[in-house]
C-alpha cells in the first residue's frame, strides 16, 4: 500500500509517495487504532493517505520556512501486490 500526494509551487511540481509493506502498514494502523487488523481493508486503507498527510505536513512547514512556498493536493492511496512506483519528469 502507498500514500501519495501531489505538491507544487511556482517553481516546482511533483509528488511524494510513501510505500509500506503489508505487515508494516498493518502494524502501524493497529498501533494507531488500537485494533488487530490482519488484512488491509477499505476500512483502514485511507490510513496510508493520512500518514502521508502527517509526514508531508511537517516537511512542508520546514520547507516553506526556507522560502519554498510548497502547496499540496489531497493525498491518494494505491493498493495491490508488487507495487512499483516510478516517476518521470524534468530536472
Coarse shape: elongated
State the major sheet: 4 strands, antiparallel
Order of helices and strands: EEHHEE
What is the number of beta strands? 4
Mean pLDDT: 87
Distance between the termini: 27 Å
- Helical content, roughly? 25-40%
Report the sheet-strand fraction: 15-25%
Class from secondary-structure proportions? alpha+beta
Low-confidence stretches at least 5 residues in length (pLDDT < 50)? none
Tally of DSSP helical segments: 2
Radius of gyration: 15 Å
Give me some keywords for this one:
single chain; 91 residues; alpha+beta; 4-stranded antiparallel β-sheet; 4 strands; 21% strand
What report would you give on this structure?
The structure is a single chain. The protein has 91 residues and is an alpha+beta fold. The chain has 2 helices and 4 strands; from the N terminus they run ββααββ. Strands 1, 2, 3 and 4 form a 4-stranded antiparallel sheet that branches. The mean pLDDT is 87.
Amino acid at each position: 500500500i502507498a500514500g501519495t500526494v501531489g505538491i507544487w509551487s511556482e517553481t516546482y511540481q511533483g509528488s511524494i509517495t510513501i510505500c509500506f509493506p503489508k505487515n508494516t502498514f498493518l502494524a502501524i494502523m493497529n498501533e494507531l487504532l488500537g485494533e488487530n487488523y490482519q488484512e488491509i481493508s477499505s476500512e483502514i486503507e485511507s490510513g496510508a493517505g493520512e500518514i502521508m498527510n502527517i509526514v508531508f505536513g511537517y516537511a512542508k512547514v520546514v520547507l516553506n520556512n526556507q522560502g519554498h512556498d510548497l502547496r499540496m493536493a489531497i493525498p491518494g492511496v494505491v493498493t495491490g501486490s508488487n507495487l512499483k512506483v516510478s516517476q518521470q519528469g524534468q530536472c
